[in-house]
């Protein structure tokens, strides 16, 4: 008995003596030498069908980390399980603009036991995801970490799973680029290899798990031949690649891609062959019953000399099918009038601000819709106009101001800027979001782990890092998500909260709180406490409305599902 008590006393002494970890909001970017306030415990709230995270900052100088499995127990039979990564830091040499800075910034989420970088904080990103079937209520547990075989003080975790549910498939259509060939290059694989194809699927699933749909993928157009004016298309390889994402089989949640692009074929050379091919593509989607919006991505950011090409592309697609809208990335342009079924200007083209404009034709969305046919959809996308295309602060103060403050996906920008596109999409009423690439740096001569500076910004077009067996801490090829990808996901979940509030009769409140987060595309609230306060208010209002609504009742069609408002 005495020896047992002595062992417990020694263990208690070790735990007491260990410096306490610090819990920090996921909306902070923890950097070396920058003090952040923290708490002793983590308290999270999440809807069913949602993921929420906290950061745990450990004492400096630790190595050989080991994290015990995190499982929070509560009213449900199944625990609420957590995933834990360690934040790796990117050394920024050129700031994206005056809101950025040189030095180390957290971004890649690597395995906990990956070798630590010297001179950086040890920050764990701890994520809880509640499946739709998770029983609502309070769940509790503790994060237990060992360093060099010695336990640190445990971190209590409390999570409140709300009764309302977010839809598995995103309500806002998106299309973010990803490429098999870029992935293969960064991972040292042959694009045609089974390993590369499986890895592409892993990247697609990672995007889908963050509420994003992809364009590009393998980029392979299905084989086609022409017989009697008809296109005979072999969709077997295409279906093997895309069907899981279009039919809800890629993830346990049943989430689907919201969009898919027509893959143009070089075999189709004449106008009649192209039209037959597009018609076959649209017919295949109809026969499959796929809900994703199929679209044709016309010439990207067309110059004046590209106008005839865009017009001819639109004419051919429309002659083939009324079900395939033509997407054009351009501001409102008289030369292109009538060519776009999905007009997609940059974010900057929607908001007028004092000083120099960063879009050649700024038109607020309500005005823009009045100049378009009622059937035309309006998407938007981010570009280097959100941070400046040359890197570093501009020499002229008014130019620097014009490129500052915008919602942004850059590494060296505050997390609220990374997250703002979701609330902005709701308050603006835009119909969808495009982003040109998520692995652009993979296709350059740079090592993405060292440098993702492109188009004047750190991380422009790159939201992943390549995890390879050659890199310490990795045993296989895998996509490595960034903190920015998490923030984008959180913004899309904000969009779902706001949309659900609107569906439950709280449109005025939803619009008011969305504008508190982002008054315009360049006026984004950066105080994390205010974001958290808005989140609390939305959750409280949603819970009250949900419990009094018809949606809280089990669906007669799916007794174990809660039907979200359409």
Write the topology of this structure.
Elements: H1 2-17, E1 22-25, E2 42-48, E3 50-58, E4 65-67, E5 71-72, E6 80-92, E7 103-110, E8 122-130, E9 137-143, E10 145-147, E11 150-151, E12 155-165, E13 174-179, H2 180-187, H3 194-209, E14 214-217, E15 224-227, E16 230-233, H4 236-246, E17 259-261, H5 271-288, E18 293-297, H6 307-320, E19 326-328, E20 342-343, H7 365-371, E21 377-381, H8 397-402, H9 415-419, H10 421-428, E22 432-435, E23 453-454, E24 457-458, E25 464-467, E26 478-481, H11 483-503, H12 507-517, E27 518-520, E28 523-524, H13 528-547
Parallel strand pairs: 2-12, 13-14, 13-22, 17-18, 18-19, 19-20, 20-21, 21-22
Antiparallel strand pairs: 1-3, 3-8, 4-10, 5-6, 6-7, 6-8, 9-12, 10-11, 15-16, 23-24, 25-26, 27-28
Helix pairs in contact: 2-3, 5-6, 10-11, 10-12, 11-12, 11-13, 12-13
Order of adjacent strands in the largest pleated sheet: 14-13-22-21-20-19-18-17
**Any idea what the radius of gyration is?**
25 Å
Oligomeric category: single chain
Number of helices: 13
Tell me what portion of residues adopts beta-strand conformation.
Answer: 15-25%
Unreliable spans: 1-17, 556-566
Shape: globular
- Find the count of extended strands (DSSP E, 2+ residues): 28
Average pLDDT works out at: 93
User: And the CATH topology of the largest domain?
Assistant: TIM Barrel
Sheet/helix structural class: alpha/beta
Largest sheet: 8 strands, parallel
Considering DSSP H and I runs of 4 or more, what fraction of the residues is helical?
Answer: 25-40%
Distance N to C terminus: 63 Å
CATH class type of the largest domain: Alpha Beta
């Amino acid at each position: 008995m005495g020896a047992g008590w002595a062992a417990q006393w020694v263990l208690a002494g070790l735990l007491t003596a260990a410096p306490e970890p610090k819990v920090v909001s996921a909306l902070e970017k923890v950097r070396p030498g920058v003090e952040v306030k923290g708490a002793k415990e983590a308290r999270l709230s999440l809807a069913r069908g949602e993921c929420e995270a906290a950061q745990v900052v450990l004492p400096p100088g630790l190595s050989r980390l080991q994290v015990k499995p995190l499982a929070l127990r509560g009213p449900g039979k199944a625990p609420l399980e957590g995933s834990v990564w360690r934040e790796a830091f990117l050394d920024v040499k050129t700031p994206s603009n005056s809101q950025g800075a040189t030095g180390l910034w957290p971004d890649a989420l690597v395995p906990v036991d990956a070798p630590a970088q010297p001179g950086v904080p040890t920050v764990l990103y701890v994520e809880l995801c509640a499946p739709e079937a998770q029983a609502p209520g309070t769940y509790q547990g503790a994060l237990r970490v060992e360093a060099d075989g010695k336990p640190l003080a445990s971190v209590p975790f409390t999570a409140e799973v709300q009764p309302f549910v977010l839809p598995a498939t995103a309500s806002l259509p998106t299309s973010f680029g990803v490429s098999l060939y870029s992935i293969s290059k960064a991972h040292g694989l042959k694009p045609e290899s089974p390993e590369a194809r499986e890895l592409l699927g892993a990247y697609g699933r990672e995007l889908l798990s963050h509420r994003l749909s992809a364009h590009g993928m393998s980029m392979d157009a299905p084989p086609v031949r022409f017989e009697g004016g008809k296109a005979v298309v072999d969709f077997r390889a295409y279906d093997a690649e895309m069907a899981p994402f279009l039919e809800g089989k890629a993830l346990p949640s049943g989430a689907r891609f919201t969009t898919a692009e027509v893959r143009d074929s070089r075999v189709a050379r004449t106008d009649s062959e192209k039209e037959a091919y597009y018609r076959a593509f649209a017919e295949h989607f109809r026969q499959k019953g796929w809900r994703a919006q199929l679209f044709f991505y016309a010439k990207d950011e067309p110059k004046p000399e590209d106008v005839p090409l865009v017009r001819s592309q639109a004419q051919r697609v429309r002659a083939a099918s009324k079900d395939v809208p033509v997407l054009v990335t351009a501001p409102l342009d008289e030369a292109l009038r009538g060519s776009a079924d999905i007009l997609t200007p940059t974010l900057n083209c929607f908001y007028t601000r004092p000083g120099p404009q960063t879009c050649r034709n700024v038109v607020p969305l309500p005005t823009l819709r009045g100049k378009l046919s009622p059937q035309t959809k309006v998407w938007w996308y981010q570009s280097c106009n959100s941070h400046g295309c040359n890197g570093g602060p501009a020499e002229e103060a008014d130019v620097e101001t014009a490129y500052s403050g915008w919602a942004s996906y850059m590494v060296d920008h505050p997390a609220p800027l990374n997250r703002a596109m979701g609330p902005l999409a709701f308050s603006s009423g835009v119909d969808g979001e495009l982003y040109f690439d998520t692995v652009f740096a993979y296709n350059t001569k740079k090592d993405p782990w060292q440098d993702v500076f492109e188009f004047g910004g750190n991380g422009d077009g790159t939201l992943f890092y390549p995890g390879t067996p050659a890199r310490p801490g990795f045993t296989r090829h895998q996509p490595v998500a960034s903190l920015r990808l998490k923030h984008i996901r959180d913004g899309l979940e904000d969009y779902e909260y706001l949309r659900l509030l609107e569906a439950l009769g709280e449109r005025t409140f939803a619009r008011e709180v969305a504008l508190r987060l982002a008054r315009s595309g360049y006026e984004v609230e950066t105080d994390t406490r205010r974001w958290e306060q808005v989140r609390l208010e939305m959750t409280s209002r949603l819970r009250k409305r949900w419990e009094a609504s018809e949606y809280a009742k089990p669906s007669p069609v799916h007794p174990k599902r809660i039907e979200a408002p359409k």
